[in-house]
Amino acid sequence: MPTRVHEFAWPDRVVVGTLGIPGARTFYLQVRAGKQIVSIALEKQQSAVLADKIDEILDQLITVDGNPFSVPTGTPLELVDNDPLEAVHEQFRTGAMSLGWDPTTAQVVIEAYPITDDDADADAEDDESFDDDEPNVPEMLLVRMPVGTARAFAKRTREVVGAGRPTCPLCGYPMDAEGHTCTVPEV
Q1: How far apart are CA 10 and CA 185, in angstroms?
Q2: CA-CA to 77 of 20 to 30 Å: which in 35, 130, 153, 187?
């Protein structure tokens, strides 16, 4: 069975955002081109690693001798996007991801695949967002974004990840609004 690919070659918008309160947030990678919007759920850690790796790729490109690409060292002001997520309809929950560089188009490439374990598949069948027209069709998200957009994406993602619960200065664990039982290791 062919894979349904949600492909965005030059998206109008690509961001990570959240729904929910700190401590109970769901992270989404949302991409829009025209009227087509795809939102996939991510783990907080996946979001953080994605931002770090994008910056790492861009920083490496800057250091390449004879680099023909104009890679910004910071986020271009005109590409800053602090708007909330648009209407979220979760396409799938992300399992594996890959990140790359396409020198032919000078774009960072993100590929995201759904969780494939049997329990997640059973849950997806019960999910209201599941597409009954084409059951069990494997799918993936393919996003290509130019270097400026990639730099802005990484910056916003780090800010979204960092906007969660504050960290306890003693034990390093997140503190809840209702209180915190510190688990400082005894010396």
Answers
A1: 50
A2: 35
Strands 139-146 and 4-8: parallel
Domain boundaries, the chain: 4-162
Task: List beta partners, residue 107.
Answer: 102, 146
Residue 137 bridge partners (DSSP): none
Long-range CB contact pairs, 9-15, < 8 A, 24+: 9/33, 9/105, 9/144, 10/144, 10/145, 10/146, 11/143, 11/144, 11/145, 11/149, 13/81, 13/86, 14/143, 14/145, 14/149, 14/153, 15/81, 15/83, 15/85, 15/153, 15/156, 15/157
Single pTM value for the model: 0.80
89-115: pLDDT as tens digits: 999 999 999 999 999 999 999 999 999
Pick the CATH number of 4-162 from 2.40.160, 1.10.1660, 3.30.2450, 3.30.70: 3.30.2450
pLDDT value of residue 89: 96
| 21 touches 163 (CB < 8 A) | no
The CA distance from 127 to 59, in Å, is 40
